[in-house]
Structure formats: structure tokens, C-alpha cells
Amino acid sequence: VELLRVTRCPHFSLAGGGSLHDAARMSVRVAEPVVVTYDELLRGGGELNDRISAAFGYDGLGIIVVSNVPGVDDARRALLPLAPRFAALPDEVKEKYVHEQSFFAFGWSHGKEKLQSGMLDTGKGSFYANPQYDNPVDDEELIRKFPALVHPNIWPTEDLPELEAAFKNLGQLIVDTGKHVARHCDNYVHSQLPGYASDRLERIISESRVLTARLGRCCGGRPPPGPGAHRPSA
Asked: What's the predicted TM-score (pTM) here?
């Protein structure tokens, strides 16, 4: 796996009068993300401190790749094909799962977010849900005050019932893997700052009831599912 990082030339700025020709001279550096296996994550101690530092330190990309996660391939195969199926539903059907009161943080969102230019982003659609808790709180006042965080999930039970189980399965797997990564991040920070609680980040993820997962779908037209269709993401 390789990522491209674009490094701006020291004196180049479009705002300062630079041209697109100048932009073409921007240097491109190929950077490889840090990769760890799932089995390595399960080990305790500070064995991964160097790689955690390389991934999330000052010169890191800010990401880490976890390979060989048990069950992830089956979970992806179950969920990702459902993204184009939902996007292909009639607009009046999808509209049932749009939730403006939560600022579109639950259910279906398409063309609601603004780009830097001020234009609405119609190039992608997203389905949002809490992968762990359908009803994270029972307090109606909290739901009214913080709908973008604690509103109950909105599932297309009538129109695509299989989405709920597949979404939760992959979402929970990602959360569980993230907790393992967080434990190693805690180990690293604690090794540098002894006063830091050694389980702080892992505990935040483990105890949170307001995690959000997103199933994304490119919406440049409506290609049918299959070869050549836009690929969904999770």
C-alpha cells in the first residue's frame, strides 16, 4: 500500500499569484503507511511503540494500516454491495431516512454538506448510524439537545432490511480493532509521559455510547451494481 503526499513548494501560493504551471512543479513524495498485523495488536506491552510513533508522530501520515483482521473480508462483502443498492432506491424512498433534526448525522445524507466553494456536495451519499447502540440514551431531553450525537438509529427496515445487521457487524469489528490500536497508543504516550493514564484512549472508545459509522457511496449518476460501478466505502 502506498500513499501520495504532496508537499507545497516553500514560496508557492495560488493566493499570492502562483499559476497552475507553478502548481505542477510541486514535489510529490511517495510515502508508505505503517502496517501492523492484527496478531501484533493483540500482544501487550510496548512492542509497537516505534511503529506507533512512526504512524502518529510529527512526521507520520496520521494513519496506521491493520492487516489480517479476522472476519473483515466477509463483513465487507456483506455490507459494501448494499451501498449502491440503497443509493439506487427511488428518491422518495431514500427521503424517508433523511433526518434533518440531527443535522443529517443519522440515516441518509446526500447533497447536504457544503464544499469549500460553498456548493453542495452532490458527488457522494452517506448512510450514518451508531454501530453499537440503536438507542444510546433513553433521556428524551438529551436526545432533543444533542440529536447529532445520541439520536436513535434510523434503519431502512422496510426497504433494505439486511443493511442493519451488515452495518453493525462491520462497524463493531472496526470499533474493536480500534480499541486494540488505542491500547498501543496509550502504551506509547505513557512511555513518554509517565503521568498519562495508561488506558485513557482505549477507555474513551470502550465506554463511549456515541460512536458513529459511515457507509459512503459515490453518486455521480446511478450506475448499476457490478463491474464498472462506483465503489462504496466503509
From this structure: 0.78
Tell me the torsion sign for CA atoms 196, 197, 198, 202: negative
Sign of the Cα pseudo-torsion (136, 215, 163, 222, in order) = positive
C-alpha span between 231 and 218 (Å, rounded): 7
The CA distance from 57 to 131, in Å, is 29
Strand duo 213-218 + 34-37: pairing: unpaired
169-194 residue pLDDT tens: 999 999 999 999 999 999 999 999 99
Q: Which residues contact 36 (CB under 8 A, 6 or more apart)?
A: 48, 51, 64, 65, 66, 67
Question: Do the beta carbons of residue 40 and residue 31 sit within 8 Å?
Answer: no
Q: Which of 208, 212, 213 is nearest to 179 (CA)?
A: 208
**CA 125/CA 122 separation, integer angstroms:** 7
Is the Cβ–Cβ distance between 51 and 33 less than 8 Å?
A: no
Q: Are strands 64-67 and 34-37 parallel, antiparallel or unpaired?
A: parallel
DSSP 233: B
Lookup: cell for 215 = 457507509
R_g of the chain computed on alpha carbons: 21
Cα–Cα distance, 176 to 205 (Å, whole number): 9
